[in-house]
Structures are given as C-alpha cells and as structure tokens.
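Quarterly update from the structural biology core.
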Amino acid sequence: MQVAVLLLLVAALCSATLALDNGEMRVPPMGWLAWERFRCDLDCEHDPKNCISENLFIDMADRLAEDGWRELGYVYVNIDDCWSSMKRDEKGRLQADPKRFPRGIKELARYMHARGLKLGLYGDMGTHTCGGYPGTTLDNIDLDAQTFADWEVDMFKFDGCYSNATEQEQGYPLMSKALNATGRPIGYSCSWPAYQGGLPPKVNYTELGQICNLWRNYGDIQDSWDSVLNIINWFFENQDVLAPAAGPGKWNDPDMLIVGDFGLSVDQSRAQMALWAIMAAPLFMSNDLRTISSGARTILQNKMAIIINQDPMGVQGRRLVKEKIGIDVFWRPLSKNASALVFFSRRTDMPYRYQTSLSKLNYTAGSYEIYDVFTGKSMTLKDSAPFVVSVNPTGVVMWHVSAPAKWNPRHFYKGGRRQGPAFDGGEENAVPPVFL
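Predicted structure, tokenized:
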C-alpha cells in the first residue's frame, strides 16, 4: 500500500517529465475568457459594447493591462466561440467575421502582445463549432494549426461538438502534433475528457498529459452557486483519479471563474477562488472587467490566493475531511515546505464554529505560521492546540501554512478518511493554544 502511494506521489511531483513537451503553462494559466459572461452575443448594432467583436477583446485587454491584473498573472485574453465567418476563405482557411473583426485575428494578437498580454482562440474538433461555425475536421488540422501560428495566437482551445469518439481519439493528438510542428509555442486546451465522461476507462489521463496543457473534465459552468457546487463535488469525489493527472504543464480545468457576475454572493465568490486555488486550476475570469465591483476585484486580485494557485510544485490539492455537519477541509502541499488549508461550509443556515487542530489534520509536532488569506491576519499555531474557525454559510476560511520542516510523502496516503500532510521533525516551541 505505501509503495503504491509513494509511486503515485513521485509521478505527481515529477509530472514535468510526462507533460506535453512544448514548454508552456508550467503553472496554471491565468487570464480572461469571454464565454460565460458574453456567450454568443452577435448584435453589434444594438449592443456594441457586449457583442463578440474585436472591440470587446480590446476593452478587456486594456483593463487587464491598466487595472493591475497583468502584474498578478492574468495575461491571456481568450476568444471563445462565434468569432469566425460562416465560411472558410478561398484557400480553405478559417477567417474572422469581417464585420466584427475587421482588422483580423493577427492584428488583435499584436495588440495583446504590445501590452504584455497573450491571445487565446477557440476551435472545435468536428464539422461545426458548438455555435454552428466552421469546425476543424481531421483533414483541416494541419492547415488550421498553421493558420493560428501565422496569426500569432498563444493559446488554442479545442472543443468537441459535432464529432464522435473515434474522430476525437485521432483529432486531439493530431492537433497537438500540428501545433508543435508550427514552431510557435501555443498552449493547448482540450475538451476531450469532458466529452467522454471525464473518468477512466474512457479517459486515459496519462496519455492526455502528453498531448494537452489543460483539459476540460466536466460540464460548462453557469452563473449560479448550484453550478459551482456541482463542479466542486465532482472534482473532489473523483480526486483519486484527477489529482495525480495534474502537474506543471498539464492541468485539470474545472472551468471559468464567475466571480464578479450575478450569481454568487461574496462568500461564494471567495469559496470559488479558494477552491480553484487548491485545485491548481487555470484561473480564467469570465466577467465584465469594465464594470466589476471593488469587492469582486479584491477577491480575484488576492495575492496570496494567486500565490497558492501558482505554486511551482504543481500538486493538485485534496479534500481531507468531509464532516456530516456540512464542513469540508481541503489541503494542498506547496513549495518551501508550506501548505494551504481551506475550511468550507456547505451549510445554508448560519456561521458554523468548527473546532479541530493541525495534528488532527495530520500535521506533525511543531509550530506553524498561519496567514489568513482573506483577512490578512497572521498567527502562530502549535500542532496540538485546538482552534475554532467560524465559517460562513457557503463560505470559506483559507489559510497559508508555513511549515517548520520537510514534507514527508509517506504520510500522504490514499483511501483513508484523512489524506493530509506530515512534516519530519520541527521545533517543539512552547506556544499556547490559539483560538480563532
């Protein structure tokens, strides 16, 4: 049992050797994506500020560059479906809609690059995109990959509408090879597992990590807490399969951040940000950066949450505890012998005072420096000292925990009720119990 788990951890921690060999996305990519907030709004005559056009993406690029997002890592501006003309050009190439993107995708990419940003583009492994625009069939993969490279695109998302399992099995690997063959570094996002149920045996995550930089595992997120919660439930109920698949250059993608839209409360927004950070998930906002509230901006620009998400070790976090009272505890190991904890309330009644200790969460003897991610408060906590965290309904308390000693992977066991960190040694400082 211990040998098998140790091998699992070695595979997770050394995942760089198995990842797609394009040098891209060694940490989870961050940026902005149009789909959830703006969908396929084509009415540029009556809704010019919100329709899918070059103006929308220029607006968002300006906000990323001027409002402090770029410096935090939000550098991708990603176009989703409905950008193209309904027909390919006379040479068989995809082309942007001439009315909504009159200067073309290449000029838009250069606009991004001039501002220290990157451009992402959408396509589909099938006869049509999900919105009914021209797709990329097997015979067009090389042509389309070269077109994207000629346009100086930095990331490509490959959806799977209007294709079958056999075509996907051929097409997703072929597109990976074709993108690499262009000589331009292009991050590659695959929707393949989402179309195959997200789990083995239909999904081979070892193979996927050699083909794609990130992949959608599950259904599309919607602007509601129910949707976010469904995604959280699925990912952590299947963590034994999903967590080992992730690592530098290859990431599970639970879909966009909807913080700043209409469906989440402040506490729910913090919960999504915290759990996406624990999952080492790509952080692609889908909101309107021109009108985003200061509260949503504060959550999305939280430096410590981003540091946790971007940790270079790239180990996806896990749920340690799921209490019948409606409290879950999540944990992620970080570089420099640190870790992150999230206390999450599924309750809908009132703040719940949850009592535990670091030793109960499988931390070994020692004193730990605790930083509360959303309040900014710091404290020192001894492993054996009981503490209470007050967690708001559908909310979180998130901690960065600085460890005094080396992480011991032997204690990261699989299959038990608790799957947590352990540290070798550490000073036995006389620190009184601290209650929160």
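The two ends are 37 Å apart (CA to CA).
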